[in-house]
Please model this.
Amino acid sequence: MSLVKILEIALRTGRVTRRYPVEEPLLTPEFRGSIEVDPSKCWGCGACTKVCPSNALTLTPSGKGLVLEYFVGRCVFCGMCAEVCPAKAITVTKKFELASKNLRDLRSRVVHEVLRCSVCGAPITAEAEVRAVVKVSPITEEYVALCPRCRKERFTKSVALRIGASSGPS
Ligand code: SF4
Ligand code: SF4
Model:
Protein backbone atom coordinates (compact mmCIF):
# COMPACT_ATOMS: atom_id res chain seq x y z
CA MET A 1 0.00 0.00 0.00
CA SER A 2 1.37 3.41 -0.93
CA LEU A 3 2.12 6.09 1.66
CA VAL A 4 -0.51 8.36 0.15
CA LYS A 5 -3.14 5.65 0.50
CA ILE A 6 -2.12 5.07 4.15
CA LEU A 7 -2.34 8.80 4.88
CA GLU A 8 -5.74 8.93 3.22
CA ILE A 9 -7.05 6.13 5.45
CA ALA A 10 -5.47 7.64 8.57
CA LEU A 11 -7.04 11.04 7.93
CA ARG A 12 -10.43 9.48 7.24
CA THR A 13 -10.33 7.30 10.38
CA GLY A 14 -8.89 9.87 12.77
CA ARG A 15 -7.08 9.04 16.01
CA VAL A 16 -8.05 5.68 17.49
CA THR A 17 -5.65 5.53 20.44
CA ARG A 18 -5.99 7.25 23.82
CA ARG A 19 -3.40 9.66 25.22
CA TYR A 20 -2.96 7.66 28.39
CA PRO A 21 -2.12 8.75 31.08
CA VAL A 22 -3.40 12.20 30.10
CA GLU A 23 -6.72 10.62 29.11
CA GLU A 24 -8.60 7.78 30.81
CA PRO A 25 -7.59 4.38 29.36
CA LEU A 26 -10.14 2.32 27.48
CA LEU A 27 -11.04 -0.69 29.62
CA THR A 28 -13.42 -3.12 27.98
CA PRO A 29 -15.92 -5.13 30.08
CA GLU A 30 -13.72 -8.19 29.46
CA PHE A 31 -10.55 -6.51 30.74
CA ARG A 32 -8.87 -8.38 33.61
CA GLY A 33 -6.50 -6.72 36.06
CA SER A 34 -5.14 -7.88 39.39
CA ILE A 35 -7.21 -10.09 41.68
CA GLU A 36 -8.38 -9.48 45.24
CA VAL A 37 -8.99 -12.20 47.81
CA ASP A 38 -11.63 -11.46 50.45
CA PRO A 39 -10.18 -12.81 53.74
CA SER A 40 -13.66 -13.06 55.27
CA LYS A 41 -14.78 -15.47 52.52
CA CYS A 42 -11.58 -17.47 51.84
CA TRP A 43 -11.54 -21.05 53.23
CA GLY A 44 -7.85 -21.67 52.67
CA CYS A 45 -8.68 -24.72 50.53
CA GLY A 46 -5.92 -24.00 47.99
CA ALA A 47 -8.03 -24.72 44.88
CA CYS A 48 -6.92 -21.40 43.35
CA THR A 49 -3.24 -22.28 43.82
CA LYS A 50 -3.73 -25.55 41.92
CA VAL A 51 -4.99 -23.84 38.76
CA CYS A 52 -2.77 -20.76 38.85
CA PRO A 53 -0.49 -21.22 35.80
CA SER A 54 2.25 -18.90 37.04
CA ASN A 55 2.38 -19.71 40.76
CA ALA A 56 1.21 -16.21 41.62
CA LEU A 57 -0.95 -17.82 44.31
CA THR A 58 0.63 -20.10 46.90
CA LEU A 59 -0.65 -21.78 50.04
CA THR A 60 2.12 -22.58 52.50
CA PRO A 61 2.42 -23.47 56.18
CA SER A 62 3.84 -20.64 58.26
CA GLY A 63 4.27 -20.87 62.01
CA LYS A 64 1.02 -22.34 63.34
CA GLY A 65 -1.01 -21.22 60.35
CA LEU A 66 -1.51 -21.55 56.62
CA VAL A 67 -0.79 -18.55 54.40
CA LEU A 68 -2.43 -17.87 51.06
CA GLU A 69 -0.20 -15.39 49.28
CA TYR A 70 -0.88 -13.50 46.06
CA PHE A 71 2.17 -12.08 44.28
CA VAL A 72 0.92 -9.81 41.55
CA GLY A 73 4.41 -9.72 39.99
CA ARG A 74 3.82 -13.25 38.70
CA CYS A 75 0.14 -12.91 37.82
CA VAL A 76 -0.81 -13.28 34.14
CA PHE A 77 -4.37 -12.04 34.81
CA CYS A 78 -6.07 -15.13 33.44
CA GLY A 79 -8.86 -15.13 36.04
CA MET A 80 -8.87 -18.93 36.43
CA CYS A 81 -8.46 -18.67 40.23
CA ALA A 82 -11.74 -16.74 40.50
CA GLU A 83 -13.50 -19.34 38.36
CA VAL A 84 -12.56 -22.28 40.57
CA CYS A 85 -12.84 -20.64 44.01
CA PRO A 86 -15.67 -22.52 45.77
CA ALA A 87 -16.17 -19.67 48.24
CA LYS A 88 -16.41 -16.91 45.61
CA ALA A 89 -13.66 -15.16 47.57
CA ILE A 90 -11.72 -13.91 44.53
CA THR A 91 -12.63 -10.82 42.53
CA VAL A 92 -10.92 -9.98 39.26
CA THR A 93 -10.52 -6.22 39.35
CA LYS A 94 -9.72 -3.80 36.57
CA LYS A 95 -6.61 -2.54 38.38
CA PHE A 96 -3.57 -2.48 36.08
CA GLU A 97 -1.38 0.35 37.39
CA LEU A 98 0.50 -2.00 39.67
CA ALA A 99 4.13 -0.94 39.47
CA SER A 100 5.91 -0.25 42.75
CA LYS A 101 9.45 0.29 43.96
CA ASN A 102 8.63 -1.73 47.05
CA LEU A 103 8.34 -5.49 46.54
CA ARG A 104 6.09 -5.72 49.61
CA ASP A 105 3.38 -3.73 47.80
CA LEU A 106 3.13 -6.55 45.27
CA ARG A 107 2.22 -9.19 47.83
CA SER A 108 -1.01 -9.69 49.76
CA ARG A 109 -1.72 -12.41 52.28
CA VAL A 110 -4.59 -14.21 53.95
CA VAL A 111 -3.55 -16.05 57.10
CA HIS A 112 -5.56 -19.07 58.23
CA GLU A 113 -5.59 -20.92 61.53
CA VAL A 114 -4.94 -24.62 61.19
CA LEU A 115 -7.15 -27.23 62.80
CA ARG A 116 -5.16 -29.90 64.65
CA CYS A 117 -6.18 -33.50 65.28
CA SER A 118 -7.80 -33.81 68.72
CA VAL A 119 -6.04 -37.17 69.23
CA CYS A 120 -2.51 -36.94 67.81
CA GLY A 121 -2.17 -33.16 67.27
CA ALA A 122 -1.24 -33.47 63.59
CA PRO A 123 -2.26 -30.49 61.42
CA ILE A 124 -5.39 -31.28 59.40
CA THR A 125 -6.23 -28.25 57.24
CA ALA A 126 -7.43 -24.65 57.54
CA GLU A 127 -10.15 -24.28 60.18
CA ALA A 128 -12.24 -22.18 57.80
CA GLU A 129 -12.25 -24.99 55.23
CA VAL A 130 -13.34 -27.56 57.81
CA ARG A 131 -16.18 -25.28 58.98
CA ALA A 132 -17.31 -24.81 55.36
CA VAL A 133 -17.23 -28.56 54.63
CA VAL A 134 -19.14 -29.44 57.82
CA LYS A 135 -21.98 -27.11 56.74
CA VAL A 136 -22.65 -29.07 53.55
CA SER A 137 -21.61 -32.62 54.40
CA PRO A 138 -23.05 -35.33 56.70
CA ILE A 139 -19.71 -35.68 58.54
CA THR A 140 -20.25 -35.56 62.33
CA GLU A 141 -18.50 -33.18 64.73
CA GLU A 142 -16.76 -36.20 66.27
CA TYR A 143 -14.87 -36.93 63.05
CA VAL A 144 -14.17 -33.32 62.03
CA ALA A 145 -11.40 -32.78 64.56
CA LEU A 146 -9.53 -35.97 63.57
CA CYS A 147 -6.72 -36.30 61.05
CA PRO A 148 -7.29 -38.90 58.28
CA ARG A 149 -5.19 -41.53 60.12
CA CYS A 150 -7.00 -41.15 63.47
CA ARG A 151 -10.36 -40.95 61.68
CA LYS A 152 -9.61 -44.25 59.93
CA GLU A 153 -8.62 -45.88 63.23
CA ARG A 154 -11.75 -44.58 64.99
CA PHE A 155 -13.93 -45.82 62.13
CA THR A 156 -12.25 -49.26 62.04
CA LYS A 157 -12.71 -49.65 65.80
CA SER A 158 -16.38 -48.70 65.69
CA VAL A 159 -17.02 -51.17 62.81
CA ALA A 160 -15.18 -53.95 64.72
CA LEU A 161 -17.26 -53.20 67.83
CA ARG A 162 -20.50 -53.38 65.85
CA ILE A 163 -19.50 -56.67 64.18
CA GLY A 164 -18.52 -58.07 67.60
CA ALA A 165 -21.82 -56.97 69.14
CA SER A 166 -23.92 -58.47 66.32
CA SER A 167 -22.05 -61.83 66.29
CA GLY A 168 -22.02 -62.20 70.11
CA PRO A 169 -24.24 -64.60 72.14
CA SER A 170 -27.94 -63.85 71.75
S1 SF4 B 1 -5.43 -14.43 37.61
FE1 SF4 B 1 -4.42 -16.31 36.82
S2 SF4 B 1 -2.23 -15.94 37.09
FE2 SF4 B 1 -3.29 -14.43 38.37
S3 SF4 B 1 -3.44 -15.38 40.38
FE3 SF4 B 1 -5.33 -15.92 39.30
S4 SF4 B 1 -4.91 -17.91 38.31
FE4 SF4 B 1 -2.92 -17.01 38.94
S1 SF4 C 1 -11.41 -20.35 49.21
FE1 SF4 C 1 -10.95 -19.51 47.18
S2 SF4 C 1 -9.37 -17.95 47.54
FE2 SF4 C 1 -9.46 -19.21 49.36
S3 SF4 C 1 -7.88 -20.79 49.06
FE3 SF4 C 1 -9.84 -21.67 48.34
S4 SF4 C 1 -9.89 -21.21 46.15
FE4 SF4 C 1 -8.30 -19.87 47.06
Notes: The first helix runs from residue 3 to 13. Helices lie at 3-13, 47-51, 80-84, 127-136, 141-144, 148-167. The chain has one domain: 27-164. The mean pLDDT is 91.
